[in-house]
Amino acid sequence: MKPLIVLIGTGLQDYRGYLLEEIAPHYRLHLVSPAAPTWETPYLAGSTQVADLGDADALTLAVKEAGAAAGVLCWDEGFVLPVARVAEALGLPGPGAAAVAACRDKHLTRAALAAAGVGQPPSVLVTSVAEALGAAEGIGYPVVLKPRALAASLGVVRVDDPDELATRFAFAHDTTVPGAPAHDARVLVEGYADGPEISVDSVVHRGRVTPMIVARKQLGYPPCFEEVGHLVDGADPLLRDEELAAILQRTHTALGYGDGVTHTELRLTADGPRVIEVNARLGGDLIGYLGARATGVQPGLAVAATACGERYIVPPQRHTVAGVRFLYAEADDTRIGTIGFAADRLPAAADRTVVMARPGMVVSPPPKGSALTRLGFVTAVAATAAEVTAALDAAAGALRVTS
């Protein structure tokens, strides 16, 4: 029989459905989620409902009752830590709960990397505006205010002087999502690392790191760091860059990471790559999907294999380019009347066009809105980055919204 994997949560079909398509032919999937499965049903061997996916004891019981699982799997940032605890409790492969905790808590990440001498921005944990002003004075402006335990650039903002810091501190301090860890000291003041931002999704087998997907991140809505798009090139030289590979290995070794797939974000500064953060899961925002289209990797098989303690062999890379563009309302508090893409305006290279906002919703762009209030997204695949960018521009222009 195919090995059994217990999957904790799935996320939205538009963002994560491709992973189940890749996993199901090779593994039996048992889903644990708060609600009964819907779109996931064709890919499942069974399911269990657990009201609180943050309850490690309840998850452990559900995994035991699912059968002889070869591994447990989660790609939801909010639940990777309790799932790591479940793996440890049941003696299943995984990254290790301490390693995942060090990724979830960005202050612990900074401490571990500092002890190992890994290149990263200076960082100070603060509890108040006064402490933040003192930290920024010591680091030197511009600085970045960052929530201690969030992801997806939520609450992250650049400040260029003391007045801006005092005004924007609450944005970093008060931004939260359900299930996020609570800390008395919630904000990091960090040095601003200038240069292009990338992410690297890697497979980790018994502590050994292999880069799998390099995404060139496109940011928007300054002074926020909203991720408005990503570009993945199967021929990206960073996939074979020895300096980057060494930094990734030192980073994961410092965190004590065992088995799994990680999403590491870095800035390519004039002084070399600087680690911004490490997520103990596969990257979101369709980066894995782009990697599959551009490089030939199968992220679903990568996360499934590592969850079972198996080594996923990254295949030779294809030389194709894939990209995604996320679409936002033009103004705050936009009420959606009708929304859709004009099919006759879509370019041939357009791959997926997805509407996420629904009629009657009220949405805003950042900073009032976030990745949670996007109108939708478009993806494109072509031979060159220029062709992909042009296709994304045209596809984005085909979205029609009325109030």
From TrEMBL:
ATP-binding listed as a keyword: yes
InterPro entries given in the database record: ATP-dep_AA_Ligase (IPR052032), ATP-grasp (IPR011761), ATP_grasp_subdomain_1 (IPR013815)
Domain annotation ATP-grasp: ranges: 110-308
Pfam families: ATP-grasp_4
Keywords associated with the record: ATP-binding, Ligase, Nucleotide-binding
PANTHER family in the cross-refs: ATP-GRASP ENZYME FSQD, FUMIPYRROLE BIOSYNTHESIS PROTEIN C
Protein name: Acetyl-CoA carboxylase biotin carboxylase subunit family protein
Source organism: Dactylosporangium vinaceum
